[in-house]
């Protein structure tokens, strides 16, 4: 796994704009190199702000949206279109404003979808969709085949959770399923679906996006040798690169020597 790199930004707005610009470049580079690209979106305030910033920038036209696969790292298990769903936020912020190929946008199943209100079945369906999308020869070495995501974005909770992988919960230890259901989530709503760590760590690049003082301790743990069961963000690492894209407040507990906010 790659050593995390810290990039600091003056505030959340600059962080969102800079991350959006970085995402455009990363997708365009992947498409130039391999004719396609694959990203994993995150819910949360910063993750959605990055998508909105991307929708606003003229540079968005450097992306061939028809050759981009869009996945989610986690989802609230609610009816389709529910404003609390990460998919709803992503469509409103970006996906409804760019010419994506609907067949290449892969939302996690909703609670009124084919599996009804069975989150375990819905998670298994998403794991199958990931398996089907894995390109032989490209899929990274892992205990199961998943697409080789170019960028996987994660927000961080004050408790150091990423996606819907919360401290001390069973989903953290999952090694054999690509996606699992989460019940009794400490962050509402209580029922969710999440990718598991083997999938997160199969991504070429993992970007941890965090802003605000409330995340400073979680960020510090994420950049230390913390126990991932207590601080799941400590396991947020990409195969090739791991970026912590932070504002000054979220970085305020990092040891001296961290780069100064840009
Ligand atoms: O579905 C979710 O709730 C998110 O995926 C979750 O992992 C989020 O990214 C963090 O909780 C940070 O959220 P904020 O950026 O809003 O603090």
TrEMBL record:
Gene of this entry: pgl
Q: Which reaction does it catalyse?
A: 6-phospho-D-glucono-1,5-lactone + H2O = 6-phospho-D-gluconate + H(+)
Q: Which NCBIfam families match?
A: pgl
Q: Which InterPro entries match?
A: 6-phosphogluconolactonase_DevB, 6PGL, Glc/Gal-6P_isomerase, NagB/RpiA_transferase-like
Q: What does this protein do?
A: Hydrolysis of 6-phosphogluconolactone to 6-phosphogluconate.
UniProt protein name: 6-phosphogluconolactonase
Q: Domain Glucosamine/galactosamine-6-phosphate isomerase, which positions? A: 11-242
| Pathway field | Carbohydrate degradation; pentose phosphate pathway; D-ribulose 5-phosphate from D-glucose 6-phosphate (oxidative stage): step 2/3
What UniProt keywords apply to this chain's record, in alphabetical order? Hydrolase
EC number of this enzyme: 3.1.1.31
- The keyword Hydrolase is assigned to this record: yes
The entry sums up its family as follows:
Belongs to the glucosamine/galactosamine-6-phosphate isomerase family. 6-phosphogluconolactonase subfamily.
Enzyme category, top tier = hydrolase
């Amino acid at each position: 796994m790659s050593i995390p790199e810290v990039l600091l930004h003056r505030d959340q707005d600059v962080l969102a704009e800079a991350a959006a610009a970085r995402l455009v470049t990363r997708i365009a580079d992947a498409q130039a190199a391999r004719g396609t690209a694959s990203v994993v979106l995150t819910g949360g305030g910063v993750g959605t702000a990055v998508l909105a910033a991307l929708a606003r920038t003229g540079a968005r036209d450097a992306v061939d949206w028809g050759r981009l696969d869009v996945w989610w790292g986690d989802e609230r298990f609610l009816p389709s279109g529910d404003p609390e769903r990460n998919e709803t936020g992503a469509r409103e912020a970006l996906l409804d404003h760019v010419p994506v190929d609907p067949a290449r946008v892969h939302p996690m199943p909703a609670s009124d979808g084919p599996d009804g209100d069975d989150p375990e079945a819905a998670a298994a369906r998403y794991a199958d969709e990931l398996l089907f999308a894995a390109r032989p020869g490209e899929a990274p070495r892992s205990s199961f085949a998943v697409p080789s995501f170019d960028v996987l974005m994660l927000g961080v909770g004050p408790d150091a959770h990423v996606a819907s992988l919360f401290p001390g919960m069973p989903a953290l230890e999952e090694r054999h399923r690509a996606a699992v259901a989460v019940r009794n989530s400490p962050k509402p709503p209580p029922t969710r679906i999440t990718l598991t760590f083997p999938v997160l760590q199969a991504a070429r690049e993992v970007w941890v996006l965090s802003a605000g003082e409330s995340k400073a301790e979680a960020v510090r743990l994420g950049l230390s040798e913390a126990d991932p069961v207590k601080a799941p963000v400590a396991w947020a690492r990409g195969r090739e690169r791991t970026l912590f894209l932070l504002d000054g407040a979220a970085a305020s507990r990092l040891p001296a020597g961290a780069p100064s906010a840009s």
